Backbone:
């Protein structure tokens, strides 16, 4: 009886792991799809300047993309490094005309006015795109925030990180890619 029960428990656990593995695998995006995700992204409002951005206009450039929310403590910790990165990457000749940087948040961060106030209060100097339908987060398989991605000019994922990242690491990763 105990043996049968043990086999049943082991079987259930194996089944759960297989289901979880298959579910995780379904959420992955193959590298060739990133370019399609970017091309098909809906126009998004940049809350730093009130202009509409079409990500598809930037295909062919290296893209640094961060998904975050204003209510997330780890996201708030990443802001100073992202400000530093935004101020410095354009000064490096190799990066200046080859890289674009966008951050994305959803309306779960509050109203547009709340978000604009947050941007001003925190001195954010980089584009903050309102992704109302969480298009980027869903299509990039984001489960935790902040999530950062570097996509190369051909649409391949070259770097990803969950949690805050140092400006110097982002620059180093980009410089490795752009020769």
Residues:
């Amino acid at each position: 009886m105990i043996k049968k029960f043990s086999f049943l428990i082991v079987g259930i656990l194996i089944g759960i792991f297989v289901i979880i593995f298959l579910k995780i695998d379904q959420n992955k995006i193959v590298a060739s799809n990133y370019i399609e995700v970017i091309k098909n992204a809906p126009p998004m409002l940049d809350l730093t300047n009130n202009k509409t951005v079409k990500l598809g206009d930037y295909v062919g450039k290296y893209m640094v993309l961060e998904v975050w929310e204003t209510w997330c403590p780890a996201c708030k910790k990443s802001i100073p490094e992202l400000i530093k990165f935004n101020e410095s990457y354009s000064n490096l000749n190799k990066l200046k005309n080859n890289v674009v940087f966008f951050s994305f948040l959803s309306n779960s961060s509050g109203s547009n006015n709340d978000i604009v106030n947050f941007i001003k209060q925190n001195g954010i100097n980089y584009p903050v795109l309102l992704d109302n339908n969480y298009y980027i987060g869903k299509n990039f398989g984001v489960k935790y925030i902040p999530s950062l991605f570097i996509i190369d000019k051909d649409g391949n994922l070259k770097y990803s990180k969950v949690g805050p990242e140092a400006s110097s690491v982002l620059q180093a990763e980009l410089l490795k890619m752009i020769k």
Observations:
- Residues 2-27 form the longest helix (26 residues).
- The first strand starts at residue 44 and ends at 46.
- Residues 70 and 114 are 9 Å apart (CA to CA).
